[in-house]
Design a protein that fits this description.
This protein is of the alpha+beta class. It is 52% helix and 21% strand. It has a 4-stranded antiparallel beta sheet.
């Protein structure tokens, strides 16, 4: 009886090992059918290109739908924020150009107050027209400034 139990345990222990040998030959046969690495990399790069093209197309479609200009400098607002200085949290002074007028405006959470009307000529000299409506110089103008510094030898 002990002999039969010992043989049964031996059979149960060795059976998965025999199955593993059979599985390893099946795995080796399947590895031969896999595509090579270069075709996988090519497929990945092409898929990434398609995804980037779809993102680019979606951005342009959404810009056209929202009414924003795709071309730089397309539609410009008559109101420009020339400068902004924060005095305290949620309290700031803005220098605005509205049409041909220049204003200094105080802004808080609850109020917007005109502080002064500024001289247009002085404002134009102090704030060149290279500033777009968000108050920062455009990249094209910054690049032009760097080019002139390099060409002129200025650092």
């Amino acid at each position: 009886m002990k002999y039969k139990i010992l043989m049964g345990i031996t059979f149960l222990i060795t059976t998965p090992a025999i199955g593993a040998v059979a599985d390893s030959t099946a795995i080796a046969a399947n590895v031969a059918g896999l595509p090579d690495v270069s075709s996988l990399i090519t497929r990945m790069v092409l898929s990434l290109g398609v995804v980037l093209l779809l993102i680019w197309a979606a951005v342009h479609v959404l810009q056209r739908i929202s009414g924003r200009s795709v071309k730089p400098g397309g539609t410009q607002s008559h109101i420009q924020v020339l400068d902004r200085t924060y005095l305290a949290p949620k309290k700031a002074v803005y220098v605005l150009k509205i049409g041909s007028r220049s204003l200094a405006v105080g802004v808080t959470d609850n109020h917007i107050t005109t502080l002064a009307e500024l001289d247009t000529e002085e404002t134009n000299l102090a704030y060149p027209t290279s500033l777009p409506s968000n108050g920062t110089p455009s990249f094209a103008n910054l690049l032009k400034d760097v080019r002139t510094r390099i060409a002129g030898g200025q650092a």
